[in-house]
Amino acid sequence: MPYDERFVTPMREELTRLGVRELRTPEEVDETLRDVRGTALVVVNSICGCAARNARPAVALALEHERVPATLTTVFAGQDLDATARARSYFTGYGPSSPQIGLLKDGKLVYMLERHQIEGRSAASIAQDLVAAFDEHC
């Protein structure tokens, strides 16, 4: 059962205020990612502590870099279930993880950070990993 939207809204806004587009339906996911040209960041947001403490702040730091993906998107695990499942269908070879950050290039997954690579690490350290992926693929 999804959490009360009043609690989730501030967590959504941590990314959307940075210009990250929230995808709330499978159709929005497909319209955005199916034929995407260039690079697309897909952040699987979550209500968990490691999303709040590590993942969302890391994304914010990484987006300050001069080279960033052309398309910035997010889905919210545990809230927008169908959209999240559809976004994860683009993560070929990876199981579901919350949080999770994928980088697509021309529709193909080229980089992935899973929960086990986020949990227990500083936002700055995770941001460094993202920046390295941006430099390589963007």
Summarize the SSE layout with pairings.
Layout: H1 5-16, E1 21-22, H2 26-33, E2 39-45, H3 49-62, E3 71-76, H4 81-88, E4 100-105, E5 108-113, H5 115-118, H6 123-137
Parallel strand pairs: 1-3, 2-3
Antiparallel strand pairs: 2-4, 4-5
Helix pairs in contact: 2-4, 3-6
Features of the shown structure:
Glutaredoxin; 5-stranded mixed beta sheet; 6 helices
Explained architecture:
With 138 residues, the protein is α/β, with parallel strands linked by helices. It has a single domain, classed as Glutaredoxin (3-Layer(aba) Sandwich). It is 44% helix and 20% strand. The chain has six helices and five strands. The chain has helices at 5-16, 26-33, 49-62, 81-88, 115-118, 123-137, and strands at 21-22, 39-45, 71-76, 100-105, 108-113. The protein has a five-stranded mixed beta sheet with strand order 1-3-2-4-5, with helices on both faces. Helix 2 (26-33) packs parallel to helix 4 and helix 3 packs across helix 6. The termini are far apart. The model has no long low-confidence stretch (mean pLDDT 95).
